[in-house]
């Protein structure tokens, strides 16, 4: 019996409040067992890095995600590898053949000029839901806060459904320093004018996830979530963990 009053959560299919996991190689059998219990907490699954290109039973995994109403897509590194080798057209056909209709345009490993990315997005939106990533995996490649905001705005205006803020699967780049500390001034600045519902904040650790939940609310979009942490994250979103205990207590609340 439900008896607690908890923060309102958006329901699947969600437009925001997304939990986007990173799949770094879980086997088909393990994934099926995990999704049976936790699939209703997950909205998006990124096949991490360029792993999709060599993943066994890839089509079966993609179909399994879809069975649980989870959107699968390939990590931006695979896009960058294809761009670097002048194979973006072939990559697009590869995704279509797999039944993937989301594509990530990123510049985390190689430098793809912003205008070039905008041009690519204008072409890709004809066939895909496009998400773009801002920020570099190189901790020495720093952007000013104004550059972050300007780039996100331009990418959204170009037709991206969402923009991802780089954090790596380790939480040590982009919106974090090399020790995993959140660049809080940067986040505050981004939230001044941008719609948080259109931003997916990469937050691979519970500490980072708790920051965004307390700063923005239960329905913040979070990415690079580890599959084993999905239940813990939803617990945080519902105000059922000490660090997020009071989330939603001053908002309109409904039973779970």
Automatic annotation (TrEMBL):
It is an enzyme of class 4 (lyase). This is Phosphosulfolactate synthase. It comes from the Bacteria. GO terms for molecular function: phosphosulfolactate synthase activity. Keywords: Lyase. Belongs to the phosphosulfolactate synthase family. Gene3D superfamilies: Aldolase class I. The keyword Ribonucleoprotein does not apply. Its EC number is 4.4.1.19. InterPro entries: Aldolase_TIM, ComA_synth, ComA_synth_sf.
